[in-house]
Recover the amino acids of this structure.
């Protein structure tokens, strides 16, 4: 995996609970305050609903619920609008920290923990000043599994019908 | 290739598609009136245009082919070759071929198409035509070939563009290779190793961009739109000044702004509207080819082709229409002998018409053929195992049988129809477009299919309702009526749920939160409003807390991640800027009903076990 990672890629780091994560900056469209969200019935609990982004309707996902992280009640929350073509998604996080551009020797491979829920989406670990930032594959974290559950759900309803 | 050149080429290809559709119409017209020099002139001009522009933008292959075609047409024009059905067939096939070429060029401006076969045929015809009388035996082989040509036609005409492109992919990828590699290597580079070839092929397929579709808009409409947008800008400035100075008449300005906005909305919507003409004219060709393949004489009469319809709706109705037209030719119209026997004119009539009716578009496909026999339909359905033996159906229900999948009354499966797939697809396609299809038929007189379609899919008239704290949108087309039930009208029947007694009719009553899988608060039904929904299949009512209003809402599709979520057709942004879901109540109800069935089924068994124990 590490050979696929481009050297010099910049990441946007953000907090989920007390942990720090980062996603490639190129898939970030913008960062906004948490808007009013309309919930959608029959969806997984981390699907918060849909929001209006200047006339475009975008789904909002709570990354904390998704990864099973307790939210930090003190933190101010923000929504990162991610462009994962073909879809755009809003991701709720506790706080936005900074843009980091790790040197290649500062990134190490993800710890190989089979049981961890998040280990599938972690592409690497960035270590600096004794702080750990987990590099997140956002497309993998959000779409793959969710699409499958989505499809399964629709299949199930179809079969039931 | 630089951008300018590419733009030029793409512009040409757009134009070429237009020219080709025009040409096809002319060919068909030529067949009915072979001697018409005006048509011949027009065809000749079209071919000449095409050739000229193709060469100008550097599509040499296309230019060469059209050049040959042009010389053939010249002979037709001068009368050196007689216009026969065979020559028209050849022209049509050439037209298809050029369409294919254009389509593949659209995908990839460097693609090549092999046209030697057709070129040879043109030459053959030209030589044959030169020897005047020798042309006579010529039509025979051409006609024999026709079924093959027909089999090709639909693919080239409707589904074709992608398919043709796919066919091209193999050749194309090679071309890409030779074009992309020599940049670094000398132009003499040998073909790349096989592994890489596969890669590029994949890349070529993945990179093929979804062609940016374009639409023709009348200048008048655009100018009107510009005017209103100008007015909008002025009003906005006025409003800003009025607010700054706290002017009393700002309310009036807002009102005016609303009016202009509505106007802008209407015009922008109308920009998406295109006349059904092009799609209808395509049917001429379908009828011609289908009837020739079946050996019947069928005349297609078209009316209302100027009627306008949203482009996306039109595109999606095109295939169902083709199917219905073919069906009319095949199943509807009888063979010439049978028609004579029944005292009808030898040539069958199929009428295709479009008109507006109360906010919808109606497309009618009527034939003067055999009509549907309800008894035959029922018998056939029983034979196919779709119905239980001895079932008696009302005429209306029997007609609906033709939409059942796996149903076909035709004894023999032909090239054209009879496989029993299709009519069900036709119906689903139409229903997906929020439309419906009706059948009017009379044995011996003919059948008429009536398709009702919404004018646009982008905006709907809708009712905004409130259920607890949430607001939802219900398309007005679903709402049959809304009524405040009185306490005594609603009864609870255990095992069935609530029943609403409306003027003597018992309708199931669902509470919206329970349909949406939420907790239902115990509330009297008389506090809410019952929305009565009637579809062809069922009638039911849904209890909501309040009706907020009736608006036109602009539909925003839900993201990819929610596609296939049953019960919601999209979302719309309400006045306060919050998005709200558009409910498909029939889907929600069927979803709701399917659930208790699965959870309730095991329960009695468990009870039975317990009692047995």
């Amino acid at each position: 995996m590490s050979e696929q990672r481009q050297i010099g890629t910049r990441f946007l780091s953000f907090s989920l609970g007390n942990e720090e994560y980062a996603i490639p900056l190129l898939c970030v469209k913008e960062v906004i305050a948490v808007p009013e969200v309309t919930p959608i019935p029959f969806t997984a609990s981390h699907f918060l609903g849909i929001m209006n982004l200047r006339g475009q309707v975008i789904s909002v996902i709570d990354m904390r619920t998704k990864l099973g992280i307790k939210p930090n009640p003190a933190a101010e929350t923000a929504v990162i609008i991610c462009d994962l073509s073909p879809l755009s998604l809003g991701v709720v996080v506790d706080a936005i920290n900074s843009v980091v551009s790790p040197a290649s020797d500062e990134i190490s491979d993800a710890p190989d923990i089979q049981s961890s829920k998040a280990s599938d989406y972690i592409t690497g670990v960035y270590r600096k000043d004794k702080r750990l930032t987990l590099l997140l594959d956002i497309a993998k974290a959000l779409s793959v599994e969710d699409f499958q559950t989505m499809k399964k759900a629709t299949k199930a309803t179809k079969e039931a019908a | 290739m630089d951008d300018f050149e590419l733009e030029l080429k793409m512009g040409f290809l757009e134009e070429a598609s237009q020219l080709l559709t025009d040409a096809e119409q002319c060919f068909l017209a030529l067949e009915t009136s072979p001697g018409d020099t005006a048509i011949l002139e027009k065809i000749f001009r079209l071919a000449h245009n095409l050739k000229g522009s193709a060469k100008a933008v550097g599509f040499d292959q296309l230019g060469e082919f059209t050049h040959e075609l042009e010389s053939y047409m010249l002979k037709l024009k001068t009368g050196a070759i007689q216009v026969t059905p065979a020559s028209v067939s050849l022209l049509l096939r050439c037209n298809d071929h050029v369409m294919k070429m254009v389509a593949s060029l659209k995908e990839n401006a460097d693609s090549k198409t092999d046209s030697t076969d057709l070129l040879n045929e043109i030459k053959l015809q030209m030589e044959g035509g030169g020897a005047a009388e020798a042309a006579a035996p010529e039509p025979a082989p051409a006609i024999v070939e026709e079924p093959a040509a027909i089999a090709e036609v639909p693919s080239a005409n409707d589904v074709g563009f992608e398919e043709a492109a796919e066919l091209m992919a193999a050749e194309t990828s090679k071309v890409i290779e030779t074009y992309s590699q020599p940049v670094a290597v000398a132009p003499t580079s040998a073909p790349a190793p096989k592994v890489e070839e596969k890669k590029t092929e994949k890349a070529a397929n993945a990179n093929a961009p979804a062609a940016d579709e374009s639409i023709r808009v009348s200048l008048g409409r655009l100018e009107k739109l510009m005017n209103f947008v100008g007015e909008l800008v002025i009003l906005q400035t006025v409003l800003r000044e009025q607010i700054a100075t706290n002017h009393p008449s700002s309310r009036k300005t807002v009102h005016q702004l609303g009016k202009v906005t509505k106007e802008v909305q209407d015009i922008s919507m109308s920009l998406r509207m295109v006349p059904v003409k092009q799609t209808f004219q395509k049917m001429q060709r379908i009828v011609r080819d289908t009837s020739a393949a079946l050996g019947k004489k069928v005349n297609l009469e078209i009316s209302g082709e100027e009627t306008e319809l949203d482009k996306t709706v039109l595109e999606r109705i095109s295939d169902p229409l083709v199917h219905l037209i073919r069906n009319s030719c095949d199943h509807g119209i009888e063979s010439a002998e049978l028609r004579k026997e029944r005292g009808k004119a030898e040539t069958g009539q199929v009428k295709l018409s479009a008109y507006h009716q109360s906010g919808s578009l109606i497309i009618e496909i009527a034939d003067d053929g055999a009509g549907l026999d309800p008894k035959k339909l029922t018998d056939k359905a029983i034979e196919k195992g779709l119905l239980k033996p001895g079932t008696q159906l009302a005429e209306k229900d029997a007609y609906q049988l033709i939409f059942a999948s796996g149903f076909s009354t035709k004894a023999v499966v032909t090239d054209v129809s009879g496989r029993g797939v299709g009519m069900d697809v036709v119906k689903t396609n139409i229903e997906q477009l929020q439309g419906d299809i009706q059948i009017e038929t009379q044995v011996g007189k003919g059948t008429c299919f009536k398709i009702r379609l919404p004018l646009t899919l982008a905006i709907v008239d809708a009712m905004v309702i409130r259920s607890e704290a949430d607001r939802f949108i219900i398309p007005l087309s679903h709402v049959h009526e809304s009524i405040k039930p009185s306490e005594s009208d609603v009864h609870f029947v255990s095992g069935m749920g609530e029943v609403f007694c409306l003027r003597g009719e018992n309708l199931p009553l669902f509470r919206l939160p329970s349909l949406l899988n939420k907790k239902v608060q115990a509330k009297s039904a008389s506090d809410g409003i019952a929305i009565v929904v009637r579809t062809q299949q069922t009638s039911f009512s849904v209890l909501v807390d309040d009706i907020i209003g009736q608006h036109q809402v602009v539909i925003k599709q839900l993201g990819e991640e929610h596609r296939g979520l049953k019960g919601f057709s999209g979302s719309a942004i309400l006045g306060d800027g919050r998005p709200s879901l558009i409910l498909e109540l029939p889907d929600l109800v069927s979803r709701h009903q399917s659930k208790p069935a699965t959870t309730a089924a095991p329960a009695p068994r468990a009870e039975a076990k317990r009692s047995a124990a």
